[in-house]
Amino acid sequence: MNYKQLEALIYVTRNGTFKQAAESLYFDSSGEEYITPESIQYRIKQLEQELGVSLYRKRQGSSRVLLTREGQLFLREALEVFSRMSEWRSMFLESEKGRLTFATTQTVLIHRMVDAIREFHTRHPNVRVQALNATAAEMENLVGEGRIDFGISTRQPETGELEYVPWKKSPMVLVLPKGHALSGRRDVSLMEIADHPLILLEPEMRGDRELVDESFRKAGIKRPNVVIETSNSEVILTYVEAGIGVSVIAETNLANTRREVDFVRLDPKVIGKTEVGLLVREGQFLSFRAREFLTFLDPSFRDWLAERDVRMEREAIEETNGRTGRSSTAKVELARAGLQHAAAPEDEPEDDNGFNLPKRAKTSKK
Fold first, then answer.
1. Which sign does the torsion angle of CA 180, 181, 183, 189 carry?
2. DSSP symbol at 357
3. Are the C-beta atoms of residues 116 and 296 closer than 8 Å to each other?
4. Residue 185 phi, psi dihedral angles, 5° rounding
């Protein structure tokens, strides 16, 4: 049993005759595959030999093909198998070309994703990677609208329509100009930090900035002396190096920095740790490209992807059973596949064991 055989059976059921099935398959393949009615019939015959049953019969005096009772029962399962096979074929065919699009913050792009992008590009040089710099709110919109494959966000989403998987945590640090009075200290209180001009990420950079603001609020500091806000951590380090002020940011921002600055790691019990995580749309089918990239990013995502596949499969089965019931007939499955049952003309009454399916409108190939 193979993809071509299932395809032949479905197209014959949809179009009603071997000739129309061949024409429809030709047009659907954009003319890339020339196929004859005899080829369609041969594929179904092979399928019948493997199953040991007759799947169709011809109406007497007509070229119209009707499914036998066994054909109807088999088609119900064949539609599901064919759909999954089509998904996998598409996934693998597109894995070596096309585009991978994701969004994250500048810090994550610079300090967390370089190795994964290098590995992915080495494996798939013909795939264009589009890495968008976005805030957490922007990422949620992009993922929710299906405009990107996934996001690596600095906060958990505010809507249940998105899935969030915690990935990395980073302690917060106080960044200081070289030789600052607080340099070399083992710990610094938030009250001491608040006495200095602060250069912080802007409020729109949800996650890191929320952590800082909440920590000041809990410490009773209502109005910290914020003198500069920016969306760029490299700008923060540049201005701290210039002696304009101090900053509180995730330690990840200091990785491989060339800025001449000092830093003091802050107590996580006082200010907590910043977190980044994977953001995908609930129930979203992830492409082969996206799945492979995520495993390059962190091998632990492989287990999560496998668990998610099982969960989505189980939910799909439960949804199908709830919608159609265990007593579902092949007619319901045909309707799901767009193969709507039509009443036969009065001079051609419908047989109890068959379906007269409407012909697909012919299209002309330009």
1. negative
2. P
3. yes
4. -70, 145
Environment class of residue 223 by beta-carbon count within 10 Å: exposed (0-12), middle (13-18) or buried (19+)? exposed
pLDDT of residue 94: 55
Residue 110: predicted pLDDT? 87
- Across the chain, how many H-helices and E-strands are there? 14, 11
Q: What gap in Å lies between CA 282 and CA 296, rounded to an integer?
A: 22
Give average pLDDT by consecutive 10-residue segment, the chain, 366 residues.
Answer: 84 87 77 74 88 85 85 84 73 65 91 93 90 91 92 87 93 95 91 94 81 92 92 92 95 87 92 92 85 94 89 74 49 42 35 37 41
Give the contacts of 64 (CB within 8 A, at least 6 positions apart): 16, 17, 58, 356
| Sole residue written with tokens 């590995």 | 119
Residue 104 burial by Cβ neighbours in a 10 Å radius (0-12, 13-18, 19+):
buried
pLDDT at 169: 92
Residue 252 DSSP code? G
pLDDT at 30: 54
Query: Cβ of 234: how many Cβ atoms within 10 Å?
Result: 14
Tell me the two tokens of residue 3: 């993809």
Q: Please calculate the CA angle 281-145-93 and round it to the nearest 5 degrees.
A: 70
The tokens 């990420």 sit on which residue? 201
How many angstroms separate the CA atoms of 361 and 363, rounded? 6
Q: 145 burial class (0-12, 13-18, 19+ CB within 10 angstroms)?
A: exposed
On whether the CB atoms of residues 298 and 167 are closer than 8 A, the answer is: yes
Q: What pLDDT is recorded for position 321?
A: 63
Compute the distance between CA of residue 295 and CA of residue 314 in angstroms, rounded to an integer: 23
Specify the pTM. 0.59
What is the residue type of 207?
A: G
Distance CA 210, CA 364 (A): 59
How many whole angstroms separate alpha carbon 215 and alpha carbon 137? 21
